[in-house]
């Protein structure tokens, strides 16, 4: 190889230099190691040259020679030892061995830290829901109500709300047994009927729940509506929406909520409240809401078959709608997919725990209620 190919960036120490140190280039030839800088050139013969490792993590290689007293050349490019003049020098076998060991240790430490960071990242990923749950529990109910109100206001205009007193009174009668069975000590549930033809219902942090007229008119029984409501209210009690929101705003919100004052992230959560209605619940959250909602129905002695029937209804309509533009008619499926797995699980719960009744008579003529709702919508 030519001399040009064996140049290495480095430096030199010597008392006569400005500040005792300067940078330059080490040029290795078969007979010498030359240091070239703006201050001139200094050369050390290869014969008798001494090498030493030092600096942080032994990454620097130092050269000294008795003929150049007070001079020390150095470089961090340990590839210099691959030059034939050093590679064949048995005196440098120890230095080369230490360089290899240092390089191996450096790589091992690097991989260890990468592994730790990867493990930390995976830990945060797998633990984000439990951490978000812990943060959600610390959030005051007043803040939840504010977040729910902000989300509801972004979705439902005042002119969309059904305000017919007869309809609302009947709906309150419908929901009363379920609310009593839930017996929430945290939330005061507030219900709204939204004039919208989509099969949809949602419950928000703080206890606000809305149900679309499309769902009420499509349901085959009051038990089907109550099954949907039980599922939605379980999401509220288990704080699934709050947990999703905390996760969405990021690690800062989680750590701030865990180790600081949750009021510090209030503005961030409220500003992101409108995104709640487009969020999808995880499969675990959906399973939990199904199981908890089923428990509410059992406690209220309401036939849980209604929950399954409605899931089967929207699943059937989804299958029939494939390839057809339904203009969002099945929008409930975007956030609450009625999978066969969920239906099978609920059927198994019914078989194991529900028995055959008798169940509560709801004291509501559901078809008459639907008729009143249609009349109200046609006014």
How many whole angstroms does the radius of gyration measure? 37 Å
Number of strands: 10
- Kindly report how far apart the N and C termini lie: 95 Å
In DSSP terms (H or I, runs of 4 or more residues), the helix count works out at 14
Broad shape: rod-shaped
Number of domain modules:
2
* Helix and strand run: EEEEEEEHHHHEEEHHHHHHHHHH
What does this protein look like?
The protein is built from 14 helices and ten strands. The protein has 379 residues and is of the alpha+beta class. It folds into two domains: 3-104, PH-domain like (Roll); 139-378, no CATH class. The longest helix is centred in the first third of the chain and has 46 residues, at 93-138. The radius of gyration is 37 Å and the shape is rod-shaped.
Defining key terms:
379 residues; seven-stranded antiparallel β-sheet
Itemize the secondary structure elements and their pairings.
Layout: E1 7-13, E2 21-28, E3 32-37, E4 40-45, E5 50-54, E6 60-64, E7 72-75, H1 84-87, H2 93-138, H3 141-155, H4 165-182, E8 190-194, E9 201-203, E10 208-212, H5 213-218, H6 222-237, H7 240-249, H8 251-259, H9 266-271, H10 283-299, H11 305-321, H12 332-335, H13 340-354, H14 366-378
Parallel strand pairs: 8-10
Antiparallel strand pairs: 1-2, 1-7, 2-3, 3-4, 5-6, 6-7, 9-10
Helix pairs in contact: 2-7, 2-8, 4-14, 6-10, 6-11, 10-13, 11-13
């Amino acid at each position: 190889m030519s001399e040009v190919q064996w140049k290495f960036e480095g430096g030199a120490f010597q008392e006569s230099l400005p500040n005792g140190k300067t940078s330059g280039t080490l040029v290795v030839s078969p007979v010498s190691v030359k240091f070239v800088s703006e201050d001139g050139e200094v050369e050390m013969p290869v014969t008798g040259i001494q090498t030493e490792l030092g600096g942080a993590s032994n990454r620097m290689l130092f050269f000294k020679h008795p003929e150049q007293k007070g001079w020390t050349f150095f470089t961090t490019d340990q590839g210099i030892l691959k030059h034939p003049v050093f590679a064949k020098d048995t005196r440098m076998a120890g230095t080369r061995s230490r360089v290899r060991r240092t390089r191996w240790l450096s790589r091992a430490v690097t991989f260890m830290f990468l592994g730790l960071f990867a493990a930390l990242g995976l830990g945060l990923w797998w633990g984000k829901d439990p951490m978000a749950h812990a943060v959600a529990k610390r959030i005051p109910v007043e803040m939840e109500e504010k977040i729910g109100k902000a989300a509801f206001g972004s979705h439902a205009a005042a002119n969309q709300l059904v305000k017919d007193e007869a309809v609302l009174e009947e709906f309150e009668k419908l929901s009363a047994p379920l609310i009593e069975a839930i017996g929430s000590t945290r939330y005061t549930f507030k219900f709204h009927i939204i004039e919208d033809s989509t099969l949809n219902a949602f419950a928000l942090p703080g206890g606000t729940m809305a149900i679309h007229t499309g769902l009420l008119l499509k349901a085959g029984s009051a038990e089907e509506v109550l099954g949907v409501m039980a599922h939605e209210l379980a999401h509220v009690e288990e704080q699934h929406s709050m947990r999703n929101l905390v996760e969405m705003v990021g690690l800062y919100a989680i750590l701030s909520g865990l180790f600081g004052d949750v009021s510090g992230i209030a503005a961030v959560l409220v500003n992101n409240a409108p995104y709640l209605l487009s969020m999808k619940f995880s499969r675990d959250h959906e399973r939990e809401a199904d199981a908890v909602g089923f428990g509410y129905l059992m406690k209220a002695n309401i036939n849980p078959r209604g929950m399954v029937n409605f899931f089967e209804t929207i699943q059937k309509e989804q299958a029939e709608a494939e390839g057809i533009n339904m203009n969002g008619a099945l929008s409930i499926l975007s956030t609450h997919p009625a999978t066969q797995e969920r239906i099978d699980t609920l059927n198994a719960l019914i078989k194991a725990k529900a028995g055959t009744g008798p169940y509560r008579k709801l004291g509501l003529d559901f078809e008459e209620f639907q008729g009143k709702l249609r009349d109200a919508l046609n006014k």
